[in-house]
Amino acid sequence: MYLTLNSVNKRFDGANNRGRHQKETLKDISFEAAQGEFLCIVGPSGCGKSTLLNLVAGLVRPTSGEIVLDGKKITGPGAERAVMFQEAALYPWLNVIENVIFGLQATGCPKARQKEIAERYLKMVRLWNYREYPIHQISGGMKQRAALARALAMDSKLLLMDEPFSALDKQTIHILRAELEAIWETNKKTVLYVTHSVEEAVYFADRVIVMAENPGRVKEIIPIPITRPRDIEDAKFIALRKEILSQVQLSAWKSAENEFDETKEAPS
Ligand SMILES: Nc1ncnc2c1ncn2[C@@H]1O[C@H](COP(=O)(O)OP(=O)(O)O)[C@@H](O)[C@H]1O
Ligand SMILES: [Mg+2]
């Protein structure tokens, strides 16, 4: 398999009112992604979605277990994985095109070629006319477009996205979703996409990984056999969205009950 997570566990050191402890954030996470597959990860807030993505990014080390990408064990960050967060991590002192080119400089490709590549991806995300704009003069949606162009320009094997559109307004989200979907259809990158929106997951995913919390774990992996581009008002779409939503809510409720039990157990 292209990307394999093999019994990945993650514990963080922490403290609560009962003293220091090790919080089991992720437990026994195993799944695979095929090359070119679009995998979405959904689950209640705090279940460890971002931690999981950071593990694959190599920004966080697993306590045990291993992650293998294209035959190589992940031991740290690498250029073959591009990461995109909720807030675009752009350099404020560079303009739009300079931000895209910045990532390419490390690859050692000639300057003229860097410009060509940046042009191609800025056109793809429809930012070409804004290439000379300073970052603080473009909207949130444009910032995420710029971050996407930069990530795509790196031509990494794996695109890791952590709720990249969730800070944007609804209208912008719908436009960017359609754009990303079309870009993915032409580029066929392998994507791991974290979202709290079940609708978004059903819109993008070949398969949806549903997580449960306390500890964070894979609850179910659900294939989405709907042709693209998908219509969020289509009956099949709505049925799948409802099914997955109920799974997510169920585990959120369960964990709320656990929290309640914990307060009862706490010494008075
Ligand atoms: N660096 C860290 N140190 C300690 N705890 C952490 C750290 N990063 C995440 N956590 C904990 O891991 C849990 C999962 O967090 P996160 O992965 O951000 O969840 P999600 O993205 O699903 O909302 C949370 O309880 C959070 O407090
Ligand atoms: Mg998160």
Brief summary of the model shown:
This protein has 268 residues and is of the alpha/beta class.
Protein traits:
Rossmann fold, binds magnesium ion, four-stranded antiparallel beta sheet, binds adenosine-5'-diphosphate, disordered C terminus, alpha/beta, 7 helices, six-stranded mixed beta sheet, 268 residues, globular
By CATH, the superfamily of the domain at 1-80 and 159-164 and 190-246 comes out as P-loop containing nucleotide triphosphate hydrolases
Spans of at least 5 consecutive residues with low confidence: 262-268
Shape: globular
The CATH class designation of the domain at 1-80 and 159-164 and 190-246 is Alpha Beta
The radius of gyration over CA amounts to: 20 Å
**Which ligands does the model contain, each kind named once?**
adenosine-5'-diphosphate, magnesium ion
CATH topology of the domain at 1-80 and 159-164 and 190-246: Rossmann fold
Strand order of the largest sheet: 6-7-8-3-9-10
Percentage beta strand:
25-35%
> How many distinct helices?
7
**Oligomerization state:** single chain
CATH architectural type of the domain at 1-80 and 159-164 and 190-246: 3-Layer(aba) Sandwich
The percent of residues in helical segments reads 25-40%
Integer average pLDDT: 91
End-to-end separation:
51 Å
Structure description:
By secondary structure, this protein is α/β, with parallel strands linked by helices. It has a domain at 1-80 and 159-164 and 190-246: 3-Layer(aba) Sandwich (Rossmann fold). The chain has seven helices and ten strands. It has helices spanning 49-57, 96-105, 111-124, 140-153, 170-187, 198-204, 235-265; strands spanning 3-16, 19-33, 38-42, 64-69, 72-73, 81-84, 158-162, 190-194, 207-212, 217-223. The strands form two sheets. Strands 6-7-8-3-9-10 form a six-stranded mixed beta sheet, sandwiched between helices. A four-stranded antiparallel beta sheet has the order 2-1-4-5, covered by helices on one side. Helix 2 packs across helix 3, helix 2 (96-105) runs parallel beside helix 4 (140-153) and helix 3 packs across helix 4. It is globular and about 55 Å long. The structure holds adenosine-5'-diphosphate and magnesium ion.
